Amino acid sequence: MIRNPDFSCFVCCALCSKILSTPPSPATFDRIREYKPFKTRYYTHQDILEIGAGIHFLHNRKEAEIQEIMEKMKAELWTQAEMHTEDMVEKALKEAAANHNAFVQDLKQKHGQELREAVRKAKAEMQEAMADEQKREVEAAEQRMLHRLQRALLECAHDKMQAVAEARRQEREAAWSETAQQQRKHSDKLKEAGILAEEVYLKNIEQLKTEKNKEMNIALDIIQRKNQCETEKQLREAESLHHHELEKVMMTLDAAEDQVKTLIQKLDRMTAWKDSLETEIQATRQAFQKYIDATFPNLSPGQADFILPLRTTLQEKDTPKEAEENDKE
Known about the structure:
There is one protein chain. By secondary structure, the protein is mainly alpha-helical. The protein has a domain of 176 residues. The chain has a 3-stranded antiparallel sheet with strand order 1-2-3, with no helix packed on it. Helix 2 packs across helix 3. The longest helix has 210 residues. 1% of the residues are buried.
């Protein structure tokens, strides 16, 4: 269903242009026929004709009423004219004619404006209705054309798919037959190639055996030479290392001998100094003993030894030279 944006009506489908609309109610038509201002969106051609007929009927009825009024006024005037003089009759006729003309002009102006406004509105509504109807017809035609195009495209796509499937089937059959022939040819070639390859393989194996034996002999010779060179090199390195270590030991021995010599010299100086000190102490004891003997003659010998400086007898140790001589002996 296609909804019309301006009217509350619908188009049935894209294949037919039948319009399904909601008609106005009877009360609405009565109000339209009474020629009262009423806005509605449901005018059709028949409704517009009925509105025009109603307006024409109202106009004729108004003219008939005016004519009846004029006839009545004329009758009244004629009756009054019989009662009055001719001057009064003429005056009354003139006044009546003037009043009648004024009344007719007022009615014409009033109803003319209303008629023109109603005609203008009816024309505008008819134009809008015709434009909407044309628009609906165009939309319906476009939808019908679109529906036909879609059906044509679907049929073309279906035919295309069938043609493609048939072409693929034929191509597959041709490819299968061709591959079968190629497989047979390749199988024959593979058999022949297998026989030749086996013969070549056996020849290559024998050739490889001889070459490998030669290579192994050469490699053994090279390895033996390398091992001999490495052993000689290691011996030379060991000799050089031993010589270097021996030089280090000799240097340490020389340094130790120098230290021993310096120690012997120091020891000689110390022993000489000790001897001089002992002689000095002995002389001091003797001098002090003489002083005691001279000062205290009554003391017995040895009684005043505690005053004298102490003298400890030290056992002389062997010098390094004497130790070496004792070791040699």
